[in-house]
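Quick review question:
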C-alpha cells in the first residue's frame, strides 16, 4: 500500500467506477466525486494527496476546481484527463502545475503505473527510504 489518497473527479459514472477499482487494486485509497461540491467536501474531510480532474465537468471545469482545491490544500498534486486532444487544454494543465495530461481512452493500467511511480518518487524525496517499482518494495539509504 502506498498510503496515498487519490480523488477522482469526473462527471462520467463509468470513468469514476473504473478508476476507483483499478487505483484501489493498485494500493491507493480512492475517493470519487462527480461535481465541484462533492470534490470540495471530500478534500476537506479526507485530504487526498493527488486529484485526477476531468477538464470539462457539468458544473465547472477542472482548472477552476483545481484553483479551489489548492486554496484548501496547496500541495495537492493534479493529473488532468480529457476526452479532447486539445493542445490548449494540455498546455494549460501543465501551466497549472499538473503532473500529466491524459486523453481519455488511455490505458488504465499505464495510468495506474504512472501514479504508483510518482507516489514512489514522492515518498523517496521525503526521505522515507522505500521505493516501489512494479509492486516490489526496495529499501534505499538516503544521506542528506
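Suggested answer, residue by residue:
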Amino acid at each position: 500500500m502506498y498510503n496515498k489518497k487519490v480523488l477522482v473527479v469526473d462527471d462520467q459514472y463509468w470513468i469514476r467506477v473504473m478508476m476507483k477499482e483499478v487505483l484501489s487494486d493498485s494500493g491507493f485509497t480512492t475517493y470519487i466525486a462527480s461535481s465541484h461540491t462533492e470534490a470540495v467536501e471530500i478534500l476537506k474531510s479526507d485530504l487526498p494527496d493527488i486529484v485526477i480532474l476531468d477538464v470539462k465537468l457539468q458544473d465547472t471545469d477542472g482548472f477552476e476546481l483545481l484553483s479551489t482545491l489548492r486554496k484548501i490544500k496547496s500541495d495537492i498534486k493534479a493529473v488532468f484527463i480529457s476526452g479532447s486532444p486539445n493542445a490548449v487544454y494540455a498546455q494549460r494543465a501543465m501551466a497549472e502545475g499538473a503532473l500529466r495530461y491524459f486523453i481519455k481512452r488511455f490505458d488504465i493500467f499505464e495510468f495506474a503505473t504512472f501514479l504508483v511511480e510518482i507516489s514512489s518518487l514522492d515518498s523517496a524525496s521525503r526521505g522515507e527510504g522505500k521505493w516501489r517499482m512494479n509492486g516490489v518494495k526496495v529499501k534505499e539509504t538516503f544521506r542528506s
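Why it works: Residues 124-144 have pLDDT under 50 and may be disordered. The helical segments are 13-25, 36-46, 62-72, 87-95, 108-125.
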